[in-house]
Predict the 3D structure of the following.
Amino acid sequence: MQRKYLAVGVMFVLMIAALAIAQQPPQDKSKRPSPPGTAEVTLKNKKVTIEYSRPFLKGRKVGQELAPYGKVWRTGANEATALTTEVNLNIGGVKVPAGKYTLYTLPSEGTWKLIINKQTGQWGTQYDESQDLARVDMKKSALPQSVEQFTISFDKKGESTAELNLDWENTRVSVAVKAE
C-alpha cells in the first residue's frame, strides 16, 4: 500500500514540476552569450532567410578553438543554422528546391564547404551526413579588418542573384546564390 502512495506522490510531484516548467516565459535568446541573428534577401520577390546564433571570438582563433579546420561546424552556435527559402535556388551550382534546410560548414585553411542539410529543427551539433542535400565550395578571402562576432549576410547583386557571406576573424567565405 505504501508503494502505491509513494508512486502516486512521485507522479503528483512530477506533474506539478512539468506544469511549472510549461508556465515559465520563453527564454530571451538575445541575452545568450551567442545571441540570434538573421540574414535575409529578396530574390524574384521571394524571401530567403537564414537564422543563426552569433558567437564572439573572445580571444580564440577560427580554425582552432572555433570552427576547427577539417571538422563539420554548425555555422554559428546553439540551435542549428536554418535556411528558409520561398524560391528554388542555385547555390554555388547546386539546385536547392524551395523549403527549409540546415546549414553547416566544413572549414579548412583553403576552400571551405557549405553543407546544405535536409534535416531541420535539431540542436546545432546533431549533424547527420546522410541528410546532406549538397556540399558546395565557398570562396575564401581576407577581410580588411577583424570581425569579432560571427556574421552571415547577403550582398544582393541583382533581381535574382546575391552573394552569401560568412565573416569572422579575418576571413570571409562566400558563395553565389541565384533564384531560379
The chain has one domain: 32-179. The radius of gyration is 20 Å. The chain has a mean pLDDT of 88.
